[in-house]
Amino acid sequence: MVVKSEDGRELRSFRFKDEDESQEVRAVERRILLETLANQLPTEAVHFSSGLEKIETSENGETLLKLKDGNQLLAKIVIGCDGIRSPVAKWMGFSEPKYVGHCAFRGLGVYSNGHPFEPRVNYVYGRGLRAGYVPVSPTKVYWFICFNSPSPGPKITNPSELRKQAKELIRNWPSELLNLIDLSPDETVSKTPLVDRWLWPAISPSASTGRIVLVGDAWHPMTPNLGQGACCALEDSVVLARKLANAINSEPASIEDAFRSYGSERWPRIFPLTIRANLVGSLLQWEDPIVCSVRNNIIIPKLVRLGPIMEHTNFDCESLMKTNF
């Protein structure tokens, strides 16, 4: 990992194995991860582009899902993993995720003949502005630019306009960032407001209602400052699968009990991470020049230690082979 200032000056260079042998970072393209998981399912198990329009519960406890394409599904169990703006979460009484004051441009630079970067995470810190990039394959490099904004602003989908705005933010920054933006295909470039939802004890709804349960961003949207959003969704899935398997194979445990147990087990992990991600983002988005100088010349070079920073990634999901249906 390398941390630089906006003028290209190196502030700190970390080697994970030198700092903490238990730590490592693996960057994976989201599309590849989803395709890999989907390919393990039976053919026709996944139906895409079927937005949820309405949820109804029958007297016998089954759930009727009415889709936007006119189809209907009658389900004994519903696992809502439908993202930040989850209709399932809204139906269960969860509030809309809250905007945290930052937006992010993201993209995927493509080098058809191979990129020139070493396998490391690169961060660049400015005033109220930061960026980063990391290779995800021999030919692709993920990048982001995070900037302060009092409001999310209008939704923009034109890739040319998105590139223009992103490049304007970092026009005097290291050239490799500008090159990455130019090399990003239209479909990979986006701008999104950063949001989260804090699951306050005794105030927020439970993760489940009857035989309906939430997973991932649908339940606990968090800012990407710790890189744990998708990771926590995978953790949720492992824990929930194990709870369901035990309920199915070990009567008299019920599905409802399994869902409640899942929520109780995951909440102590999720709630602190959501708050920590929010606070880290606020600190990294400092604008005051004196505070930024202290960060660049004292905190990052002399005080930051990789082990404590990455300790939140130390999650043991146990053996996946224990989960059998």
From TrEMBL:
It comes from the Eukaryota. Gene3D superfamilies: FAD/NAD(P)-binding domain (3.50.50.60). Keywords: Monooxygenase, Oxidoreductase. Residues 38-269 form the FAD-binding domain. InterPro entries: FAD-bd, FAD/NAD-bd_sf, MOase. Belongs to the 3-hydroxybenzoate 6-hydroxylase family. This is FAD-binding domain-containing protein.
